[in-house]
Amino acid sequence: MSTPRIGGLASGMDTESIIKVMLESKQAEVDRIQAKVDEDSEKYTSWSELNTKLSDLRTVTGSLSSYTTWSQKTVASSDTQYVTATATSTSVASYDIFVETLAKAHRIASDAQASTTSALSLTGDFEVGGETISIESADTLEGIRDKINSASSNMDEDEKVKAYLIGKQLVIERAKTGDTDISITDGASGVLKSLGVLNPDESLKNEVQQSEDLSATVNGLAYTGSSNTGITDAVSGVTFNFLKEMTAGSTETVTISNDTATVKSLLTDFISKYNDSMAYINTQSTVRLSSNNSSITAVGILQGDTLLSSMYIKFRSIASSIETNPNYMNQSFNSLYKIGIGFDTEANQLSILDESKLDDALENNFDDVTELIRGWGETVDGQKKGAGIIRQMDEYIYSLTDPVSGSLTLRQQSIDDLISYNDSRITSMTQDMFDYEAELWEHFASMETMVSEMNSQMNYLMSALGQAG
């Protein structure tokens, strides 16, 4: 039951105003804590957004620190009609290719039959690819084709064949190329001889294509094999596909290069995300003045935070660092500035200052740039020395964003804990204030009752005295 609120009916006091004044100090404390919660919530949001930006930046620094990025290659062929290739971890090189003969699959055929769909009236067995094919009187040429193809699934990989019709002839072709003939034997009833696949002496009657190995040269050295494509044993790390025979004396060139385009794209992406992160740090930590410096127009929510300012300094320190030990890096490529990347303003903002210098470094000094960007360095007396600039940055970002012990993670957790604590305080203090207000109204109600009773007694006495006079 709610406490009745009687406001000065007997006493004439402004009870509600008195109680309001008595509650103001408690409400002021609640408002102060709520303002702190609102401020901390804004700080938490700022740290969260910075964490996201740095995580995005680390996606790029991680790629630039990866062996895979720097080992991948691009492949160009002088004529893709003749030869194509892919490459993984292999040295930059060029290969002159000559294809004398492509590998060919053995192919045989029957004589032309009267029909592909009429019963052949042949019975008996024959063997192909190690599998027995049984023929019945009602079988057609199409039916024999289908039986061979069905049996092929049970053949050994090197024995597999495929059967198809060209016109009214049955064609049987070995599934794999190379200098190996189809294994085929007629049965006692001579089905294959009747079809014209074999001669009476068991020799092939219609050999459409002889089996043949690939014959090629790679940089003048002979290469033979049973396949034309997916060739991985000619040059380590390179897969060749030979597609067309070449005329005598001609060659086509396959050139394998470092994938500089991907690296340059990642460096450009790194610069963009680095600048975005640094600009955000600057916005959150800077006091901005009016155009005439006469007044403050804005203050970053994290202004004065030592972690934020130390981060800003550390990032710039890494990005502008110079490795002076020639044991770790070529001194001609020991800083980002040496490959055309640097700060073009006083702000902590990177840019490609000289694109031609960057392109030249990637093209002609790829290994040196690799060390500059992702070199491992070494640990000396507990300190990392000689590591690549982007690798240093990648490790530093992880020390900030590690989901368990990162500095930003711990800062966010600390703020979140403080917000939760103060929210609980506000809830408790608000309830206490409600209880206190109810208690005050109860006291004032009791007082009003007493005053009313006193007034009644006074009126009674005055009335009695008046009658006595």
**Overall pLDDT level:** 91
Q: Which strand order do you get reading across the main beta sheet?
A: 1-15-3-11-12
The shape is: elongated
> Would you report the number of β strands?
21
Helix content: 40-55%
Output the radius of gyration: 45 Å
End-to-end Cα distance: 48 Å
Low-confidence sequence ranges = none
Which structural class do you get from the secondary structure elements? Answer: alpha+beta
Range of strand content: 15-25%
Query: Total number of helical segments?
Result: 10
What number of domains?
A: 3
Major beta sheet summary: 5 strands, antiparallel
Oligomer: single chain
Overview of the structural elements:
The two termini are 48 Å apart. This protein has 3 domains: 1-72 and 259-456, no CATH class; 73-102 and 214-258, no CATH class; 107-209. The longest helix has 62 residues, at 407-468. The protein has helices spanning 15-64, 67-71, 141-152, 191-195, 260-285, 306-319, 355-364, 366-374, 389-401, 407-468, and strands at 73-77, 83-87, 93-101, 107-109, 124-128, 131-135, 161-166, 169-174, 184-186, 207-209, 214-218, 221-225, 231-235, 238-242, 252-258, 287-289, 296-299, 341-343, 350-352, 378-380, 383-385. The chain is an alpha+beta fold and 469 residues long. A 5-stranded antiparallel β-sheet has the order 1-15-3-11-12, with no helix packed on it. It has a 4-stranded antiparallel β-sheet with strand order 7-8-4-10, covered by helices on one side. Strands 2-14-13 form a 3-stranded antiparallel β-sheet, with no helix packed on it.
